[in-house]
Amino acid sequence: MVRILEKIQMTVGVLFLSLFFITILIQIATRYLGISVIWTEEVANYSFIWAIFMGASVMVNRKEHFSFDYFSRKLERKKRAMLMVFIDAIVLLFALSLAVYGFQAVTTFWDYNWLAFPSFKMGYIWLSIPVMGVTMAIYSISHILKNLGLLREKVTS
């Protein structure tokens, strides 16, 4: 399930990053031609937000976002697993906070409208925060369970 979730998030992140890139190209071309296109800045900003938040969550799953490399390389297997459980527990608390406060932000700002597209709601942009928080929590729980399994293993020589 975690692999599927990561693949979905990477796809969403790449789509929003592509939208960001295309929008920036349109913005550059229209400025060069002297045409005023006001929607490009807003679309670029919001697509970049979604791309970054999806990527940040995936980096948590890949353990490329937050780690203590020095300690994890120096510690033996069980102690390393204990350190990883501790780190993932901290990340889990942070992720759950993001989810809770992100949902509050979504409900607070849902009815705000985009400037360039008044029919679009700002809630869709703010939704990226709880999505990131929930997926980070799922990834952290997965890591904790894996490391707890390593702690339960008997040492065989």
Explain what you see:
- By secondary structure, this protein is mostly helical.
- The chain is 78% helix and 0% strand.
- It contains 6 helices and no strands.
- The chain has helices at residues 2-33, 39-61, 69-74, 77-109, 123-126, 128-152.
- Helix 1 (2-33) packs antiparallel against helix 2, helix 2 (39-61) runs parallel beside helix 6 and helix 4 (77-109) runs antiparallel to helix 6.
- The model has no long low-confidence stretch (mean pLDDT 90).
Secondary-structure blueprint:
Layout: H1 2-33, H2 39-61, H3 69-74, H4 77-109, H5 123-126, H6 128-152
Beta-strand share of residues:
under 5%
Largest sheet: none
E-strand count: 0
Structural class of the helices, strands and pairings? Answer: mainly alpha
Order of helices and strands: HHHHHH
pLDDT < 50 runs, ≥5 residues: none
Helix content: over 70%
Indicate the overall shape.
elongated
**Rg of Cα set:** 20 Å
Q: Quick summary of this structure?
A:
By secondary structure, this protein is an all-alpha fold. It has helices at residues 2-33, 39-61, 69-74, 77-109, 123-126, 128-152.
